[in-house]
Amino acid sequence: MIEYGSKINLTNSGLKGFDSFFSTKNCFVLCDGANSCVNGGIFAENLSKSVALNWSSKKKLFGNRKKYLYSFLLHEHKNYLSKKLDAASTLVALGIFDDNFEVFSVGDSYAEIYFRSNTKSWMKIFSMPRDINLNGDPWQLIGSDVFEKINYKNFNDLGTYCIFLLTDGAGNYLQDKNLLRILNTIGDKTPDSYDLNYLSTDLAFEAKLNGSNDDISVVTLFVTM
What we know:
This protein is of the alpha+beta class. It has helices at residues 40-57, 65-82, 168-171, 176-186, 193-209, and strands spanning 2-10, 19-23, 27-32, 91-97, 100-106, 110-116, 122-127, 151-155, 160-166, 216-224. It has a single domain (2-224), classed as Phosphatase 2c, domain 1.
């Protein structure tokens, strides 16, 4: 079972942001187009849609998933480079397949995974590594000069999870305590998409209040296996 909600591109400028989110029945992809590139927003939109649709169609493939997904993204990367769009994007994504789900990322976006224990309390079990240098900037992006690897994690334990996918405009301004506040609101209940849209919007505005001037995007997914 999966439910999700989102708030995409909360901005301070009133202009359309450069973040993009696209989902299928079981694949959810959030991209943050580089603001320094004039086509960053268009690139993020095309990339999120292409990855979600093509990843979904290949969900039955087995073997080394990390190697497969890197090859899959490398093909997308080279395709966009050939178009000379002068654009680049981060990517963070979740796919749910039968009795497991997988998360992978490129760049400086966030994936924070929480698990609800038998005592009905929430605990963080994983934070996706982020590709940032000592200055806090992404050292690799899809569509840029450097794309060397993906970050990948698979989850197959039965139970209830809450996964937050965040662009850096949100994640840089939200701490564990902010996410736990949302999880404590959920408690032992099963939220629907309306609840999760509301909670995602709540987090986005909290990031803005905490000082974010970037495009802010939050996707909150509730998964039970």
